[in-house]
Write a structure and sequence with these properties.
This protein is α/β, with parallel strands linked by helices. 50% of the residues lie in helices and 15% in strands. The chain contains 18 helices and 14 strands. The chain has helices spanning 11-25, 29-39, 44-69, 81-96, 102-116, 119-137, 146-158, 162-185, 201-210, 233-239, 249-258, 275-283, 297-310, 354-357, 360-363, 366-380, 400-409, 434-437, and strands spanning 191-194, 214-217, 224-229, 244-246, 265-268, 289-294, 315-319, 333-339, 381-391, 413-415, 418-419, 426-427, 430-432, 442-449. Strands 5, 6, 7, 8, 9, 10, 13 and 14 form an 8-stranded mixed β-sheet that branches. Strand 2 (214-217) and strand 3 (224-229) form a beta hairpin. Helix 3 (44-69) crosses helix 4 (81-96), helix 3 (44-69) packs antiparallel against helix 7 and helix 4 (81-96) runs parallel beside helix 6 (119-137). The longest helix is centred in the first third of the chain and has 26 residues, at 44-69.
Amino acid sequence: MEKTKKNPPTARTCAVEILCQVFEEGAYTNIALSKYLRNASLSNLDRHLLTELVYGTAKAKGTLDWYLKACITRPLFDVEAKLRNVLRVALFQLLYMDRIPASAAVNEAVKTARALGNEGSAKFVNGVLRGFLRKKAAGEFVFPSPEQDDAYYLALKYMHPKWLVKRWLGPHKHEGVTKLLEFNNSSAPVCLRANTLFTSRTKLLDDLKEIQVQAHPSKWSTDGLVIDEMDSLADVFAKLPNAFYVQDESSMLVADVLAPEQGESILDMCAAPGGKTTHLAERMQNTGEIIACDVHEHKLKLIRENAKRLGINNIKTMLNDGAVFRTEWAEKFDRVLVDAPCSGMGVLRRRAEARWTKDKKDLKVFPPLQLSILKCAARYVKPGGRLVYSTCTIEQAENHYLIEEFLQAFPTWQRVPFKHPLTGELLDELQIWPHVDNIDGFYICALERK
């Protein structure tokens, strides 16, 4: 495709570039966007628009493609990748952003296509979008009704893959699935965990107010804050570099259940990027030793960087495959954490592209891997020690049923009750449902030998 002279980047051209990284190269939306924002010279208004376009288009991809397929005579994936994403960004504005006039959305898309391609590209985009507006005005776009195909109706209306909606309709029914899908499409707040080695939650809240950041205490974690209003997270890092770690509320609960004590020996088998690891270190007052493992060296580097920033020095990183037993670790640790690799179906509102990058076959990959890691972990715990298993998914094959399978293979182990963080009732396991609890989906189970 012959390119014309490049114009200064706009929010829309930047959005297209980022979405190409996400959908064509496998990048994570949040990481690709953050990297772009660090280097882009955009106004604050354009930065906000860029963020809305990227996250919104990434979440709505399947529904946007449904409309596009009705407006293009050739297969959608025969269209050049950048033009596909130009069209997706434009359709997202036309369908879901009422404050942007249709004429402006179309004109900007044509300009973007011209900047990224040539005059032929601009004419193609203009024709597709004008055709979409005509069809929309004529009422030609009709979703299947719930009576005809409930899964397809919900998938298109709430921007999720049909196979996943159909899967969730079994246990949750129409009303429950609708609430779950709505939650996944909502904006996720930034949550901070106070670094209790240097500050307290109350002091951090006061310090945030001084730099014009509005927040409120988490009701789930005694260490957590939820941001209500903030201009720039980078600015907060610059002004309060040691005081906090960015961590979801549900993820903060693991430290309470593992309950490490000062001076103990802890193994965190799947530790990167170090959120739970550093939380454990803070609970231990920087004493004892935590061995933090991952299968990738670059992820271990993240753990070390986070520990250094927080002033933690009792964490030792180690390259390790959690599914392979190490004889030298047999019955060596007071407590072991398995925050297992999982499908991530509990955190889809934070991972915009994940609903489209996973398929039904992927879900079958995780339980065997999780069970292998858990079986190794059980052999590393000292007599009288504790093993905690957690995931950020709502898939019961990775949670409740996996623990059942583990207990059948290890009959000398049992679930250990722990308190619900809100009600205080004793639980054998905690399954957080996003649409019920209004935080990210998560599972935690504590295990000890009988």
